[in-house]
Amino acid sequence: MNIYSNDRQIERCLPSRFYCELLEHFERRGLSTDLLFEGTGLNLQELGDEDYLVTQSDTEQLVINALNVTGEQNLGLLIGTKFNISAYGIAGFAALSSATAEEAMEVAYKYIPLISPAIDISPSRKADTVNGDNYSSININATSFIDEDVQRFAIEGTLSSLQVMINFVFRNIMPKSMIIELNYPLHPYHEAYSASTGINIVGNSNYNRFLFPSELLATPNPLADNSSYQKSIHECEELLQKMPNSSYSLGEAIRKRIGNTDDGYLLSQESIADELNMSPRTLHRLLSKENIKFRDISATVRIDRAKEMLKQSNESIVTIAHNLGYTDAANFTRAFKKHEGVSPSQFRDKD
């Protein structure tokens, strides 16, 4: 497991691949690229190099310039449609050669830092029910961007790119069976996108996510090739380790692993060690080097899940305690107050 951490904005840490398309977008419309670069330290040659790394501040200014100059609120959706699976380099090839759609998505979850470290994508913890059918979702978060318009650009670009890739993997899927949820109000261009793609778009949601029928996860990949898959995964791992400002944090990787499912916090140190092909003792030793204990990671994930349940459901404290695996509500309350400084009831009542 590897986790990429982007916390120093002055580092050149964002691959320019995604933003190269902005340059082509300007050129196709006959717009001055000087206006695109204004206020950044970038030039035509650098942005045209897909291997060049861009600072976060330059990335934000670049997108702000593009939105202002073009006047296209739907710019993220437009740019995202230009990116199919192969456009994502070696991570895309790993997804293409994976055995199933579910395995391809696991590649995306793990190696999104190679594409855009400022975007975090993760699977749903449990299936949603839509018209009686089980739906899975891919959750999207802009993890670093400060400007709201840049966040929206990044989220919508990622969602429209996902739509292109899902259409490729799920060749027979009906667009109307897919749903995009956004946590902000819809604009007329969202309605136009929905009309052109057939995908339902819902605004003012609790999440930014892409939903699709869960049964599709088992879809075999038409280009599956285990040898190519293993080779591509190996290259992805090497690239992830070499990225500037990358931080190999085993503790953070384990936190994300057990946080991606409803009952992940119930996974034992032994089961995680087995997944990592190491002994529990080795896992304990490696975590000790990061000054963290497995039980602390598990406890943190459980409390984070409790906070979500307290805010997003009307379930009783007793029910939440039971669902989270606590022996009783009293133990849950003590653990929660120790971690958050307030009781579950007080946390729920906060504005």
Concise structural overview:
Helices cover 53% and strands 10% of the residues. The protein is an alpha+beta fold and 351 residues long. The chain has a domain of 103 residues: Arc Repressor Mutant, subunit A (Orthogonal Bundle), CATH 1.10.10.60.
Query: Spans of 5+ residues with little confidence (pLDDT < 50)?
Result: 1-10
Shape call: globular
Biggest sheet statistics: 6 strands, mixed
CATH class categorisation of the domain at 249-351: Mainly Alpha
Structural class: alpha+beta
- Distance linking N and C termini: 37 Å
Beta-strand residue percentage: 5-15%
Query: Strand-and-helix sequence, N→C?
Result: EHHHEHHHHEEEHEHEEHHHHHHHH
The total count of strands amounts to 8
CATH-level-2 architecture of the domain at 249-351: Orthogonal Bundle
* Secondary structure tally, helices: 17
CATH homologous superfamily caption of the domain at 249-351: Homeodomain-like
- Helical fraction equals 40-55%
Query: What is the radius of gyration?
Result: 21 Å
Look at the structure and give the mean pLDDT: 83
CATH topology descriptor of the domain at 249-351: Arc Repressor Mutant, subunit A
Describe the structure.
The longest helix has 22 residues. The protein is built from 17 helices and eight strands. It has a domain of 103 residues: Homeodomain-like (Arc Repressor Mutant, subunit A). It is of the alpha+beta class and 351 residues long. The N terminus is likely disordered. The radius of gyration is 21 Å and the shape is globular. Strands 3, 4, 5, 6, 7 and 8 form a six-stranded mixed β-sheet that branches. The chain has a two-stranded antiparallel sheet with strand order 1-2. Strand 4 and strand 5 form a beta hairpin.
